[in-house]
Design goal:
Blueprint lengths: L1 H15 L12 E7 L3 H18 L7 E7 L2 H10 L4 E4 L1 H11 L2 E8 L4 E2 L1 E6 L13 E5 L5 H13 L4 E3 L12 E5 L3 H9 L5 E5 H10 L4 E6 L3 E2 L2 E5 L5 H12 L7 H6 L3 E6 L2 H18 L2
Parallel strand pairs: 1-2, 1-3, 7-9, 7-10, 8-9
Antiparallel strand pairs: 3-13, 4-13, 4-14, 5-12, 6-10, 6-11
Length: 300
């Protein structure tokens, strides 16, 4: 109870400065954005958070909270550029893509339940004779998701920093030049293994946790060729361009203090959120590295 009272006092001191200023949203609502092919699931997971923000931003004209689910990056970027979505959470690579196309800016990390890091594993069939990353030149591999930090950004950077030339192929039967590493997308770790076993590809890249499960179930069948650097499992939160900075600060305070309130566990449970943290210290260093990797891949 005391935590809730203290959090409310802090929040009110910030929000009082906003009274009399231009209303945060002409529509009277704050909109959280997510990307998914399962919109009903995401609505259920994030509506409690939208409701929480709306309740404590009431003094600046917010009456309701809404969750809006886009099918892809392009749609979310368009919604943020037009002001239809105010706050968006996703893996850092997807967040950068949306931000660069809409002008949205990073403000916070959503710390997820479970391990804080994961990395990519390059692997092949043990019988293939492949033993290292260099063996992949002139061969076709499968990555998982084209808009994922762990499934795409980390392995791409690992190859580029090793002096390799990864080239996307539109079809699994496309030729791969001797100085290339051809890649296609599988969109699923099990599909990657299936393509490998049926000799449609010569190697794959999946996250370390997925690889461990598959390797444990099939001992001696797979061989690790290389592993990427660690990447964060946590999500980056970005806000649309043109938001009142004082409102942004109020939202940051609301989010970073959420785990200290009485209602915090209930609000965060459905989205498997542990807490929210400002972008500073170690998280600031992580964001800087992620931006460097993003620019390396985008500008090659």
């Amino acid at each position: 109870m005391l935590h809730k009272i203290l959090a409310t006092v802090v929040l009110m001191s910030i929000l009082i400065t906003l009274v009399g200023s231009e209303a945060y949203s002409e529509s009277g609502k704050i909109v959280l954005g997510k990307i998914s092919d399962k919109p009903t699931k995401k609505l259920k997971e994030y509506q409690p958070l939208a409701d929480y923000l709306a309740e404590y931003l009431n003094d600046v004209g917010i009456e309701t909270g809404e969750v809006k689910v886009a099918p892809d990056i392009e749609t979310m970027a368009r919604w943020m550029a037009s002001g239809e979505v105010d706050l968006f959470f996703d893996n850092p690579y997807s967040a950068f893509l949306v931000g660069d196309r809409s002008g949205a800016q990073p403000i916070i990390f959503r710390i997820k339940e479970g391990p804080s890091e994961k990395h990519g594993v390059f692997f092949a069939l043990a019988e293939s004779g492949l033993t290292s990353l260099a063996d992949l030149e002139g061969r076709l591999i499968a990555l998982e998701e084209p808009e994922s930090a762990s499934d795409y950004l980390l392995p791409m950077v690992h190859m580029l920093e090793a002096g390799m030339n990864p080239v996307k192929k539109s079809d699994i039967n496309d030729p791969v030049a001797a100085d290339e590493v051809g890649y296609v997308f599988s969109y699923d770790s099990d599909k990657t293994v299936q393509l490998l076993v049926t000799k449609k590809i010569e190697a794959g890249v999946i996250t370390d946790d997925d690889f461990q499960k598959i390797s444990d179930a099939n001992p001696g069948v797979l061989v690790v060729l290389a592993e990427t650097e660690e990447g964060t499992r946590n999500q980056l939160g970005i806000v649309r361009a043109g938001m009142d900075p004082s409102v942004v600060e109020a939202m940051i305070t609301l989010l970073t203090g959420l785990d200290k309130t009485a209602e915090g566990p209930m609000v965060m449970e459905s989205s498997e959120t542990l807490r929210f943290e400002e972008i500073s210290g170690d998280l600031g260093t992580i964001l800087t590295r992620l931006r460097t990797m993003y620019e390396l891949v985008q500008n090659r």
